[in-house]
Amino acid sequence: MRNGKRLFGTNGVRGVIGETMTPDLVLNIGAALGTMRPGTIAVGRDTRTSGEALAHAVKAGLQMCGCDVVDLGILPTPALQYIIRKNGFSAGAMITASHNPPEYNGVKVIEGDGTEMADEQIIRLEDCLFSRSFAVVPWDRVGSEIAAPHLVEEYVRAVVDHFPEGIGTGMTVVVDPGSGPAAITTPLILSRMGCRVHTINAKMDGVFPGRMPEPTQEGLRRLSEMVVATGATFGVAHDGDADRAVFVDERGRYVEENREFALIEDYICSRSKGTVVTPVSSSRLVEDVARQNGCPVDYTPVGSIYVARRMLELIAGGTPVAFGGEGNGGLIYPDHQFCRDGGMTAAMMVAVLASRQGESLSGALDNLPAYHLIKDKYVTSNPRELVGIVERAFSDDVQDRTDGVKIIRDHVWALVRASGTEPMIRVMVESADASVADALYREIMQVVREASPADCHAPPERPPH
Ligand code: MG
């Protein structure tokens, strides 16, 4: 159970096709959404082999509850979100498993304002689904369907129009959509901005022959090689539904996502003052850059939806918001839309470099302070209890309890939180000094092991986004 939710995680519901993710589940999600948000609903999907089948299922559920369906076909999640708000649709459903491997698929539910559905509404949707209290309509009110794959152009145009004409002239960019839906958006966006564009893995393919949907450093090796071989300004890659963008610099080196965040944050905050909203898991670099620009930082629980909701809340209360996002390449631009947008992030990098008068991406990144980050996880049958034990063991420290417990000292911080999806805790420790980070990490892990010695400890690895 996650915040009272039974089925949905932080970014929709996901599972392995034929196991936990089945057409009847997706049909019922469609029926529940159609019951809650009657009207015209947009449906989109990523490039997974199961996408078409699940799109049929969600559309069947929607139409049986009287909704008219606009099928946008294959497109990035942020494109669907933009189109929903622009066209005044009552809601949307995106068939995607984002960065998960090809055998997974899932559904993200989008509200009429283009944001992901909030927890309280998801709980209502789940209640409707589990109680099967669907508002099924009689035969003469069953919803219609139209295909509208051309609407993706509205999204491409909105991103391009955000920047001065020809801002990318003279830049060469290599785009790796990872066989995903950004193949039809990001190369087009960048070339319309004036960039010379090369692509790799740009044929949409649910088998993901070039690399897996998660854009890891290892998976982007060919992108890096191509950036160097073509003398490109930078390379950009997306996850499976292109709400995130990650970069390689002109030397072919992977750009750590918190540094990507900080570089774009610096560009935005030097031009428009306002709060920067980010989860407690983000690097202190985000706060450093905000402070240099005279902008405050507002911390949220981990999850892009909490960042987007908080940005909207602050704006509604009269507080200007400059920027938001997560340290995983999922960045949110409040003057564009309130969701992570990978295509916009690729375009924004062009603007960042255009503003730096010929400075290379690696040169721009070298100006940022360096931090050492340790990420680990620990399997335990009762993660929440274990987080509580850590909280009590470090009660003399300054703590933030926005999500799990964040231990804050002058030159180091640590975050210990229960995973939202698996029986484990996640541990992050960051400092400018590697030995200081390591010392606090050891202190925490000693408490963890003493409290929960029987559990098996998995080796450190990159947590999912
Ligand atoms: Mg994604």
Plain-language structure description:
With 465 residues, the protein is α/β, with parallel strands linked by helices. Helix content is 35%, strand content 22%. It folds into four domains: 2-149, Alpha-D-Glucose-1,6-Bisphosphate, subunit A, domain 3 (Alpha-D-Glucose-1,6-Bisphosphate, Chain A, domain 3, 3-Layer(aba) Sandwich); 154-248, 3-Layer(aba) Sandwich (Alpha-D-Glucose-1,6-Bisphosphate, Chain A, domain 3); 257-366, 3-Layer(aba) Sandwich (Alpha-D-Glucose-1,6-Bisphosphate, Chain A, domain 3), CATH 3.40.120.10; 372-457, Alpha-D-phosphohexomutase, C-terminal domain (TATA-Binding Protein). It contains 14 helices and 19 strands. The chain has a six-stranded mixed β-sheet, with helices on both faces. It has a five-stranded antiparallel β-sheet with strand order 15-19-18-17-16, covered by helices on one side. Helix 1 (23-36) packs across helix 4, helix 3 (77-87) packs across helix 5 (152-161) and helix 5 (152-161) runs parallel beside helix 6. Residues 98-99, 239, 241, 243-244 line the site of magnesium ion.
